[in-house]
Amino acid sequence: MINNKSINMNKKPIDISIELKEVSPHAIIANYKDYFDLNAGVVILDNFIIVIDPLLLPRQAKEFRDKLEKKYGLPVKYLFITHYHSDHVFGVAPFKDVEIFGCYDLIENLKEKKEKAWTEEAFNEWKKSEPEYAQFIDEIEIIIPEKGFDKKRVITDNALQVEFYYSGGHTGCSSYAYFPNEKILFAGDEIAAGFWPFISDPTGDPEKWIKSFEFMLTLNIEAVVPGHGPIVKKNYIKEELTFLNDLKNAVLKAISENKEPKEINVPKSAYKPAEDWQIPRALDFLHNYYSNYRK
Length: 295
Description:
The chain is an alpha/beta fold. The protein is built from 7 helices and 12 strands. The chain is globular.
């Protein structure tokens, strides 16, 4: 894939089927099990629908939107994108007639990706490497949101509201959504439930990630919808925060002892990485980050 992992991870027969699941009376998710348990979120307000991430492929996103609008009899008015990774933006095309937004850094990151990485040549190379996906790849459009926000945005519809917060942890443009009426957090990839954290994006910031978790813990939350993985409870955020702090301390200790990234004593985690490269790349990234970190 144009990012760092193939769509058809195990070269299994193509399956792009999605499943819609209810989280609460006004909140649901669409799940694409075959791609790292990818989630998209939805909040059904009184007069319109807000979608949180569009899924990986436009064909999935179209099915997703069609089912939503048919079932609830309401239009999708907003699409919120949590960050710039391909599995959270490649499905945008069926939503290009609605207001698409994210934080300001998302807009800048997508402009750069479109200019330097997600070029016609790159997509053609992708089709050569995975020809079985060519029909899906041809449907992808890179659409730059016109609306952005800095630290926070709130959308209100009668007594219902959704809050959007900038994080900057997993990636420099990571953001998340909170639906206080039903105490639902849509965490984007700040949380990948059941996976070792996805740390290493060059734009990411582990200190902002830690601060985001600290803020999330101040919110009244009953369910957390992760960017990947099953719905979890609030205590999962606390577990992730503890792990990030333990990992940070291990990295700082290694740096103080002039050790290389591969010599870091990685704290135990209940979760395995999704890819073999994940931990070594995270250690390289964190070692470099904290070697240059100034409070």
